[in-house]
Amino acid sequence: MSEGILLPKVARGTLLPEAARLARLQEALPQIKAAVAGETDAVAVEATLACLLWDTLSQANWCGFYRRVGDRMLAVGPYQGGMGCLRIPYERGVCGACARTGETQRVPDVHAFPGHIACDGATRSELVLPLRIAGVVVGVLDLDSPHLDGFSEAEARILEELLIRAFAQVATV
Ligand code: SME
Questions:
Q1: CATH superfamily, with its number, for domain 18-166
Q2: pTM of the shown model
Q3: How far does residue 11's CA lie from ligand 1's centre (Å)?
């Protein structure tokens, strides 16, 4: 049986200093990559990443995927945290902006982002990364935090690389 990720326990909602967050992420990365290595099923990879990134990113109050369904529409996928919005059009929110542009959206203050969708009123910052398969955006990884500036540029770059690695064997969603 899997034991999940081996990391020191940190209380949910804790925003560690950036250096400590990066150290924690670096400790978790090999474990996360090993957990999904060789997996070809998109939902299996998404669910495992949602679970293990939730354990790693103590500053998050939501961690999960939105998948492209139909024309310019996202639907919620595997996640951890409180109930998320079920659907997000490409024209709306931080997730929509990421799906539309294919670019990572790091939003240190969601109140300063026009069109932010408040699924959870406690959310203060957000990081949304594009998920590509064969070069096409097929969804996004959405990370929310109740802290302002809860995710750094360095965390964004590391997570972008993790997504590429984790979905390398996945051909379709
Ligand atoms: N805040 C996001 C919506 C998703 S939820 O917060 C889980 C957005 O603006 O796209």
A1: GAF domain (3.30.450.40)
A2: 0.96
A3: 23
